[in-house]
Amino acid sequence: MEIIQLGNDLLRQKSLPVMEITDEIKQLVAGMFAAMDAANGVGLAAPQVGVLKRLFVITLADKERRVFINPAILETSLETECGEEGCLSIRGVYHDVARPKHIKVQALGTDGRPFTLEASGALARAIQHEHDHLEGILYIDHLDEAARKETVDQFVRREERRLAKRAQKNAKAARIAAKQGYRIVEPVEAGVGAGERTR
Ligand SMILES: [Zn+2]
After folding, report:
1. What are the CA-CA distances from residue 134 to residues 68, 98, 112, 193 (Å)?
2. How far is the CA of 167 from the centre of ligand 1 (A)?
3. 178: confidence class by pLDDT, cuts 50, 70, 90
4. How far is the centre of ligand 1, averaged over its atoms, from the C-alpha of 176 (Å)?
5. Of 61, 101, 181, 196, which has the highest C-beta tally within 10 A?
6. Which residue in the list 20, 85, 130, 145 is annotated as catalytic?
């Protein structure tokens, strides 16, 4: 399950309610937890894996696996709090974001039962961040123009470096392969070609 990155239009779409909690939805939830854990994240929303459905998962330091299906934020405090945020879809960059400190949220669990939760601190922040994803909103949208530009530029530079490194690695693998007299059929990493395919 691939986590899509800033620039992919799916991150800007509004997600649709989950009509029924089928086995497919449960598999999606399991896959999202796995993708989130693999990326060392604390939260992941379905649109980030290309599925425009209203659900997200959160696992904070307490390791509790929280699932929110068709969530609605019922109340937000007037009091706000600033805290650092990152996003698995804007990997590698972080910025402080001001958000309401306390919230009340209602959602369905994977058992289909509604629950209401009052949250504050890291959990309130994570819920608001993930809920935004269902509306096509990213945390950078909460920053002022200069901070947003700085964060996006930083992300773009990092991604360019990543791609350059990957291309280098692939070219090296192709050279070694050529020396040994065979050619690379599969790219070293999916998504990017193996560079020169020799022989
Ligand atoms: Zn995010």
Report:
1. 11, 19, 19, 33
2. 27
3. confident
4. 39
5. 101
6. 130
Whole-number pLDDT of residue 198: 43
Is 18 contained in some domain? yes
| Residue 57 and residue 13 share a domain | yes
SS3 state of residue 116: strand
Examine the residue annotation and report whether 196 is marked as an active-site residue of this protein. Answer: no
pLDDT of 196 strictly over 50:
no
pLDDT band (50, 70, 90) for residue 189: low
131 in the same domain as 198: no
Q: What is the pLDDT of residues 55-97, one digit of tens each?
A: 999 999 999 999 999 999 999 999 999 999 999 999 999 999 9
Residue 24: strand pairing partners: none
What CATH number is attached to the domain comprising 40?
Answer: 3.90.45.10
**177 or 197, greater pLDDT:** 177
Q: Which domain holds residue 80?
A: 9-143
In a domain, 51, yes or no: yes
- Of 102, 117, 143, the position where a domain reaches its end is 143
What pTM was computed for the model? 0.86
DSSP string, 52-85: -BSEEEEE-TT--EEEEEEEEEEEE-S-EEEEEE
Residue 75 has phi, psi (to 5 degrees) of -145, 145
Per-residue pLDDT, 188? 57
